[in-house]
Sequence to fold (339 residues):
Amino acid sequence: MRLVHPPSASLDELVEAAKAGDAASFEELVRRTSADTFTLARRLVSDDEDARDVVQDAYLRAYRSIGKFRGDAQFTTWLYRITANCASTHLGRRRRHRHDELDEEVDVPDTKPEHDPQVAADGALLRQQLEAAIADLPPRLRAVVVLRDIYDLSHAEIADELGISESAAKVRLHRARRRLRTQVFPLAGEATATGPEEHARAV
Amino acid sequence: MRSDRVRDRATPINASCEAVAELLPGVVDGTTTLDRADRRHVERCLRCQAELAQYRKLLRAMRGLRAATVPEPTGLVTDVIAHLEAAGERSAVRAALTGRKVAYLGGIAAAATAAGAGAAIVLVSRGRKGRLPLAG
Fold:
């Protein structure tokens, strides 16, 4: 029995219907959240293909456990936590099998342009610099700062999903913020990978 | 962890920029609280003020990234749904196999019970036959 009309239902209605076993509602949840989920996965792992794998795993895990979703947090936050956990597992597996370097360099993803050309120019430049700096971070620092500062997960949630202590999560967050700040908003005299123009602009 | 410690009130007012700078990544969102000496240092130190301002800009920019999505690869949703369906079919096949196994084991158990019951009847009837002469 179809509980809701998926295309017109709210996210909450879709979640409730999916919990009741309506597969079409879960598919609609996938359609509505896939861009966000992919973006998070792409920020946590090294390339599009890996991000695709992480997204598939995350939705499969969400599908299997949606009955246990109690609604204490938003569905998207719950999905972010699952995605972070899948990405962590994925990176761990890659390190074991391919001996990846922890501080490997990662391609910078393009972001969607803004509508206002002037705002777009400034905003896009800053976003590009920031995304590049995030991608340059070692994965273990990157995961913490992305989950905390972009997706607003708590230290406890981050520690839980990454399998580390809360104090380790805080230490990594501080280190990550310092590296990002030095690279994107350097002070006079600080060495940076960015060009002199950006350096002068930031100071 | 250094950023969580509560510094002694006897710490000199002229705390070094280096020491304060270590705390600033946590100060920006309230994770770390500066003690009086460090606060006074920041109030007087232009470099530390500038650094704290840069952390605030960083945090604002990071939060702004939440709305910026990376273009997803073509066919991602289709692949995810196909992946879910494949997993659903696998679990259905598993359930069917498990069901068959249960039925098979149930059949064996029923057959064994029936065989046991049959053997018991034969033994009982033989026993009665054997006892008849003695009873007479």
User: Anything to note?
Assistant: Helices of chain B lie at 17-27, 36-44, 46-64, 76-135.
